[in-house]
Amino acid sequence: MKRYLVLADGKIYPGTGFGAPTATVGELVFNTGMSGYQESITDQSYNGEILMFTYPLIGNYGINRDDHESITPTCKGVVVHEVARRASNWRSEMSLDDYLKQNDIPGITDIDTRAVTKHIREKGAMKATIVDEVLPDTVERLKVTELGKAVVAESSTHNAYPNPATGPNVVVVDFGLKHSILRELAKRHCNLTVLPYNTTASEIMALNPDGVMLTNGPGDPKDVPSALPMIREVEKHIPLFGICLGHQLFALANGADTFKMKFGHRGFNHPVREIATGRIDFTSQNHGYAVSRESLANTDLMITHEEINDDTVEGLRHRDYAAFSVQYHPDAAPGPHDADHIFDEFIDLMAAHQVARKGSKFNA
Question: What percentage of residues in the chain have a pLDDT greater than 70?
Fold first, then answer.
């Protein structure tokens, strides 16, 4: 079945359809990972985006029940150079084609994804559509299409839910969380309560948490202004840790600014330097916005990590409060596990805060 990838600047790439037989519109972004397509497709940070993989063969190990990062994927489409004709892995339960059909997500294959990636790197991420037929007004209609801004509200849980354990009591504010974040906290015996993105500080404090986690999520952090007063109040009293979108919201709440990157960081090999020690971790990243380095000058935030390739701000810490954040994904699903020690630092921060406040509740 013939299908076309059409970009807002008029570029048209013919290919072959797979997945759901529907048209779609979204922001076209690229991911450079060699594997991990299931985790990426189910990552809520891709809500509203057409996800293009630069690795030439996608789908070769199928889809399994264990590697989902969310129950319902919300990316708008999948673009690949070649989709595997047959999946081969002992954990595979269905093909990528069948999975996309099941979730009403269109795909297009036989695309020169590296050529498209070079174009995006030069021109920047842009709107695109996947269609079965290119009409005279397809590009013009694409140009005037407004992409949704309520992507965090779509991705977040609507109801609180627990993940019980016997360790520190952690409130997780869900802006579009990856399940791997919950797994990493569960490994450390955290008693988790997951709350919606629009939770207030008073609702969080009523749960008497030992720590608060701000998760990853999709879209522009400036489209979630309701989170900022919550962060400003919580960080005064409770250890706070932000990841990805949580990192950007932490920065905005403390007077810094964010900006849209030309084409973002989406891959699993981004080298990040910890400034204090010089330690370098290879990290998993998925973000199209970043914290402005210049905007940090008159805030109480200090830079703790930076991306080696382009100096992007990759970590922040508050000078007065027990609060910090990282732009990358230390949960590393998919990706390298170099940076999972960040979760241990969060545990240590909560323990130290308890010792200072009323005596440790984390005795070995």
Answer: 98
